[in-house]
Amino acid sequence: MGSALDIPLHVKYIQSLGENKDDLVYHLTAHLRMNAVYWGLTALCIMGHKDALDRDETIAFVMSCWDNEAGAFGAHPDHDAHIHATLSAIQILLMQDALDRIDVPRVVKYILSLQQPSGVFAGDHFGEIDTRFLYCAVNALSLLDHLHELDVEKTVGYIRRCKNFDGGFGAREGAESHAAQVWVCVSALAILDRLDEVDQDTLGWWLAERQVPNGGLNGRPEKLEDVCYSHWVLSTMSILNKIPWIDADKLTAFILSAQDLEHGGIADRPGDLPDVFHTIFGLGGLSLLGYPGLADLDPVYCMPADLIESKGLRKGWEALPRRSLT
Amino acid sequence: MHGVKRVRYSREALAAKKEREQAKLKEYESLTGEVLARKKTKDWSQGSFDLTTKLLHVNPEFYTVWNYRRNILLNGLFPGRTPAEINDLLSDDLSLTTAFLKQHPKVYWIWNHRQWCLQQVPDGPSEEDPEAWRQSYWNKELFVVEKMLDADARNFHAWNYRRNVLSHMPIRRSEQSELVYTKRKIEANFSNFSAWHQRSKVLTSMWESGKLDKSRSLEDEFDLVKNAMYTDPNDQSVWIYHRWLVGSGDDRVIVEREIDSIQELLEEQPDSKWCMESLVFYKRLLLRKHEDSLTDGDRNDLENKCLELLTKLQSVDPDRRQRYLDLSHSKRAVE
Prior knowledge:
heterodimer; A: mainly alpha; globular
């Protein structure tokens, strides 16, 4: 059937990411660093090797990205605050049991200040709007126990206006359905207990049709399959309790075939260069598919399920049962 | 990263590559350090502006530097300048982003900066004609977006930007012209779901406002879709759009006519998953919406036919067999 998941190799890969400081690519991606650390740490948690990254160093890195002028986090020291980096920072600190390091009132204020009259959120004060940022806001407020400060009707109202005839959701009002935007909208609705806004049968159908003959998933009709859709599509299907509507064995095989079995990590598709983004999303997909030896991933938050459950935030999603290692 | 192939380097090649990178890296780190240091001191000078240009050429995804550039324009370069001079600065930045977009068509930060520039365009050229500059820019935007969509007809950044341009132009283009544009894109490639999607939005708006007679327009759409279906019955875009056209199923004549039409196609393409899937959906729509006008015999026939199709679908489209199984068990389910 193909190769098994090489957990020790992928753990080493993630550890090595912070060590390649003389790689040009490492520096050219500084604007994603906070996100990358969150992706890497979540991947390690799912593989059961959280301690492969040093806790104190990780926390120190996160805090070094605090933008005191804005009252939120940037992607890297001296980078401007942004809602996406802020969410990743909160998620990392939660996984490292260090949420107490956050100035919660300031961060909540920053997040709420980004909501637009239409109900959508901007990414920062320059105003780019996207349902991704709406999700960042809802997720972050939820993890900080400040969801009660959100105008839920206003927020849900915007998501509703992004709903398309295929049951999916776009980046903003009028935009085409895209699996990543579908995931952020459905997950936000799940956090807000408003899944009643989703046409679950139509969307379930649209999502099931993302599986292509080689077993991989794409993000929109007639586009190429990509491992990251193992997260966007599959997590959404998990929230709608419809994972059985695709072929799990074929998807599992596809994800496994995208591993780089020489240097570690998972790529967007077989034969391509791996990166930490596709590594977590491939692992997340495998976890939801019940792959043995992995911890449960919460598909709404894309974080370890036991952690989310301990905060009382688990919603009614379903994954395939975990197969045993033998 | 997407679509980057793994390459095997020899030890020598790898060493040479690393050496070349070291020089680039030193330069990059020095430039980055300089720019961020100036930003910290709120240096809004021309010199700093030029440094951001240099840095963004190397890394147009460096969002913090785009932010700094905008702040330099707002706080350093715009103040004290005439509207015409501000206009020139914005024009230069728009040209810069056009060049960047050719290399990086999917980078959010570049599209953002473009949009920001357009929002800054001052009234001009005169008090009597304050919208002319803006109108000229927005017209050009449409042209730029069309070129981007010619290069990649599915680029959602470009489609989103297109919608943005259409809604912001001081003198709006007609929705009719957008219908023409989407039709052109669809006829160039039936698989262009982005164009079908855009078309659905424009039609919805025109029907709701009464600009277009819905029933006549629907007929035109069914003709367009039928043509596409027969040309490529495997293309899911067409079938998804068709389901939207049939809509609520309140018009029984349409539902029955479409069922017949698809049945004909199925006879030519007996293994067509999309024909079968759609027939199940529309037959069940008929059962749900028009139950009272059907005889018991008709109802049983329809439901039995659906079950037959669902069984066949399990073998024709085995990846999704569980869905077809679920549908078999839930009688008269919508999906």
